[in-house]
Fold this sequence. Notes:
Oligomer: single chain
Largest sheet: none
Number of strands: 0
Order of helices and strands: HHHHH
Radius of gyration: 25 Å
Structural class: mainly alpha
Shape: extended
Helix content: over 70%
Amino acid sequence: MKKATLSLLFYLSVLSLKAQEVHGRYEDYMDDEDIADQKRMEGFHFTNFETWAMLIGAALLIIGWVMLKQKENTSKDSGCLPQGMMFLGIILISPLIIGLLGVVNKIIYYGFIIGLIAFGIWVIFTLFEKNK
Length: 132
């Protein structure tokens, strides 16, 4: 059994390393279509399918949360249905999450630039104060 496990582990390791060579489905650069899609989601311009998926995902999250809270209050075992509904809900609202993360990314980016400019101005003023 140990040999079979080690052989399987070796096979999966080699397969993983070979997949890294061809980058699998992940591309380390964004092409024009990916950039346009990201800008669309950052502007919260969702397609009709994405909008309905987010609504269904929000409903699944709420229903799953309520079922999970009811499960805590009672001794009934409802299985893994509430957790599954919440997991599916998170997957379905992922366009909204991507849009929010894009907005946060821009806020951090511009905040960093403004902070660098303010720091530069502060350094200039402190240098002129010491020279007086």
